[in-house]
Amino acid sequence: MEALAARLSHLDTEAGGTIRVVMFYDTLMRRRVDLPALTRASAALAECVVGLRLHGTGRTIRTAPDGRPPAHDPAPASTTLPITLDDEEIGTVWLERPQGEGPLDDLLLDRLSIAAAATLERYGPARTTMADPALVELVISAENDEAARARALRLLGLAVDRPLHVIAVRTPLPLDRIGTLLCPTSPVKAAPLDEVGVVLATAVDRTRLPAGTYAGIGTGPDPHTSWTHARTALRLTTELRPVIDHRELGALALLAHIPHQVLHQDTDVTSIARLARDPEDLKTLDAYCSTGSLRQAARLLHLHHSSVSRRLDQIGADLDITLTDPDGLLRAKIALTSWRLLHDRPPTP
After folding, report:
1. Residue 10: which pLDDT band, with cuts at 50, 70 and 90?
2. Over the stretch 163-187, which tens digit does the pLDDT of each residue have?
3. Which residue from 31, 180, 237, 289 could staple onto 214, CB 3.0 to 4.6 Å apart?
4. Are the beta carbons of 140 and 167 closer than 8 angstroms?
5. What distance in Å separates the CA atoms of residue 187 and residue 156, rounded to the nearest whole number?
6. Within a 10 A sphere around the Cβ of 109, how many other Cβ atoms?
7. Is the CB of residue 93 less than 8 Å from the CB of residue 112?
8. Which DSSP string do the residues of 200-237 spell out, in sequence order?
9. What is the DSSP letter of 86?
C-alpha cells in the first residue's frame, strides 16, 4: 500500500491525478482496510497530516505522511468534509496542509469520506459492550421507520442484514459483563432502559449467565417485536428457570395479552396468589409445572420424591385442583403463568 501511495503521490496532470485518486481509494475499499490504515494511506497520498473524527464515540485519528501520529499539535485544517451515512453526519475528515489547499484536496477528502463511511458500515465503531441508551431505544422503538433503525444499528456496530436477538435482563451485576457472557464471540451492545437491561446480540449463549441474573430472549421479525417478546419472557422467569426464550412459551405467551383486571378475577389465579404467601409451596408447584414429573421436580428441588408428593397433595387440595390429572396440571400451569404476569419481578435467590 505504501508503494502504491508513493507512485500516485506525484500527480502529473489534474485529469490524470483525478483518475489516480479514484483508483487509489477504490483499491483501499476493495482491500477492506480499517480506519487507521485508511488514514495512513491517505496521509501518504496527500503528503500532509490527515485527520478523522467520529461524532458518536469521539474517536480521533491523526496520521502524518510517514504513517505515524504527528509530533506536533493539530494545525488549522486546510480542507474539511463530513462523513455521512444514510444522510446522517457521523464524523469529519480533514487535511492539515500548512501551505493551503492543494488542487486535488477536495476530491481526496470526498473519496476518503466515502471510504470511511463504508468502513464504519462494515466494521462499526469501537468494540465496546456498553452503548448509548438513546441509540438502543431507537433500535427497539415501535415509532421509528426502517431507515432510522438501520442508522442506529450501524452506529452501534451491528449488522443490519443479520438476525438480531433482543434480551431483557435483570441482574445485580454490571450489564457489560452480562452482554459479554451472553455473546462472547460476536458483536453485542447493552444499555439500561426503564430499570431493565437491554442486550442486542447476533448470537446468544444462555448457558453462561451467572446465578441471580434473569433474562428473557426475544427473536422476532423486527427489533421492536423482539423487545416485546423479551419483556414477556423476562416476566415469566423464576429461580428455577432464570432464562426463557419467548419461543419456548408457545401459546402461554398469549396470556400476556389478557387485561390484568381479567386475570385478577380468575379464581385459579386468586388461589395461586394465596399459595404464593408460602415461597416453598410456590417453588414446589413451579418445579412440578415446569417438569410435569414428580421425580424430576424432586431433583430440581433437591428433595426426596415422597416429600414432594406430600407437598403437592396439600397444594392440590388448597387450589382445589387435581395436579396428577393432565387437565389439572394444565389449569395450574396457566394459573401460575397468569399470576407471574401480574407479579413480573423475578425473585432474588
Report:
1. low
2. 899 999 999 998 988 998 998 877 8
3. 237
4. no
5. 9
6. 24
7. yes
8. EESS--GGGPPTT-EEEEE--SSHHHHHHHHHHHHHT-
9. T
Q: Is 170 helix (H, G, I), strand (E, B) or coil?
A: strand
Return the percentage of the chain with pLDDT > 70, whole number.
Answer: 91
The set of cell numbers assigned to 81 is 468534509
The interaxial angle of helices 223-235 and 133-140, nearest 10 deg, is 100
Give pTM, 2 decimals.
Answer: 0.65
Measuring CA to CA, which residue among 185, 198, 78 is closest to residue 127? 185
CB-CB contact of 288 with 279 (8 Å)? no
Rounded-to-10 torsion of CA 120, 138, 343, 312:
-40
Report helix, strand or coil for 345: coil
Residue 115: how many other CB atoms lie within 10 Å: 22
Spatial CA neighbour of 40 closest among 63, 57, 21 = 63
Confidence of residue 11 (pLDDT cuts 50, 70, 90): very low
d(CA 218, CA 250): 13
Place of cell 403463568: 337
77 touches 95 (CB < 8 A)? yes
Task: Look up residue 179 and give its amino acid.
Answer: G
Residue environment code for 56-72, b if the CB has 16+ CB neighbours within 10 A, otherwise e:
beeeebbbbbebeebee
How would residue 277 be classed by pLDDT, with cut points 50, 70 and 90?
Answer: very high
Quote the distance between the C-alpha of residue 190 and its chain's center: 5
Alpha carbon separation from 192 to 183, 293, 312, 343 (Å, rounded): 17, 38, 40, 21
Q: 3-class DSSP state for residue 137? A: helix
- The DSSP 8-state label assigned to residue 290 in this structure reads H
Of residues 114 and 86, more confidently modeled: 114
